[in-house]
Amino acid sequence: MDELLDFTGKSTLITGAASGFGKALSKELAKRGANLVIADFNELGLQETAEEVRALGAKVVAISGDVSQESHAKQLVDAAVESFGQLDIAVNNAGIAPIPGPLTELESSVLDQQLNVNTKGVAFGLKHQLIIMSAQKGGAILNVSSMAGIGGAPGVGSYSAAKHAVIGLTKTAAVECGRMNVRVNAICPFFTPTPMVDNPILIPTGNIEDANQTLARGCPMRRIARVEEVVNVMVMMLSPANSYMNGVAIPVDGGVSAI
What we know:
Helices cover 43% and strands 15% of the residues. The chain has helices spanning 20-31, 43-55, 70-84, 108-136, 157-177, 208-216, 227-238; strands spanning 11-15, 35-40, 60-64, 89-92, 139-144, 182-189, 249-252. The chain has a seven-stranded parallel β-sheet with strand order 3-2-1-4-5-6-7, with helices on both faces. The longest helix has 29 residues, at 108-136.
């Protein structure tokens, strides 16, 4: 296998693995030889991912839980070490989106939920991942932010705030732990048809296709992303051969950030 695509024996932790980017990435890394600890709040969806990953020949441990709880973050890291001897790769992917609305109508409960899952989930994940990777003197972490994390996001201010924080955590971790040969980066996707985006509850008209076409108008390529296009970049960013990329937040946006 090409060195850039070879994850043979790499102990890998992925949150939000029941659907979307997390599920697709779990399968892609399984094809390339990784051993996986996967997690999600959606226990049924998580077990489905685990079955599909096992069918690809990979070893997998599936643990359901709440990423906003520090105990869960430690549990996942401990499971990787106990099952596979170490932790080589971690992907803090779990996230949620709020029902759209202006900042003038922001409710405390919505902001708390966004910060709990989208920010604390990454912060606690980083804490325990960095402890073991720093001791190992090696590892790669990828945090899933968003285009809303590098620019304004009208209607989803709480989400934007939480995703901006993810990038701040990413850059801080990269500076603190680079000398221990631990790389920490973030990916910032444009709208992609994952369950979080294609959620009828979050779309006022309920028409997903029309909503996606509206979102696409803001992109120079005049379409939203495909899941596999984002996951391909994730694989590249995590590649053991990509050993000098550290502390960056990469847009995968069809040119939106160039406008």
